[in-house]
Amino acid sequence: MNYLDFIISKTVRKHLKEIGYQPSALETAWLVWQCKNATLQQKHDAWHEIIATTEDCPIPAGDWCGTSPSLHRHLERHMMVEARMMKDFYNNDASRGIYSYALCFEEKDFDWQDDDCLFSDFEACWQAATEKFDLGVRAVRVQKRILNEAISSVWVDFLPSREVVAVSTENDAAFADNLIDEWLDGLHLPIPTPFEKGDILIPAARKAGPHSSFEEICVFDGFKDGCAYGYFTNENGDLCYEQIIHPLNHELFQGTLAAGEKVLYLFSRYLRGEISLMEFLDAKKLSF
Question: Residue of 21, 122, 184, 204 with fewest CB within 10 Å of its CB?
Fold first, then answer.
């Protein structure tokens, strides 16, 4: 299995393949975990292969958790809990829960739009959701509220093909010791990227073209203490220095910047040394 395929960004994936980068077991598990395009089955298959073919290793301390002595044990626990949640989700005993759904449309990025209907079983809920697929549905989130159980609510994200891409629970506290999300989410792994200071980046999941999605497109500054940072714009056109979440899932921006984001192009030229600070400030005044 080529674990670099779990990187959404074609630019980053190509770069790592060209330099012959071989991720460690921990980096591989993290790459699989963070991939939003992979199905749940693909992730479980990859984690089973990691357990079977790599030497176990500890998980170092991150932003949210301390160290853990065994990556393999955490992966096994995580898959066990997700399997448990899926079993409860598909149990159609009407006395135990009700279903509802929300849709994510292509033009709305990842803004979920809830439907107000409630259903006594999953199939009826799914059928109602499919009736809106011709409107350009990217994903379907089905939630089941479970009565009198340790897991009070489970929601599952599906592709229109009905493949599962994620499962989660409202009652995370009961399973925090078994889920690996917090352990991996707070890690800052030194996986190289081809990005240089001044590059304009956009999340790979977004479409190229005119944008008005503030705090997504940014000018790359570099890495500090394992974290990537860059300059974003807010709704007023002001620059904000923030951490770039998952830089491995970004592409070089090739589209047309919206009016409020054109300052990023000017600042990119400044960071690259193409214009001076005074030239940047003068050009910014003329642009707004």
Answer: 21
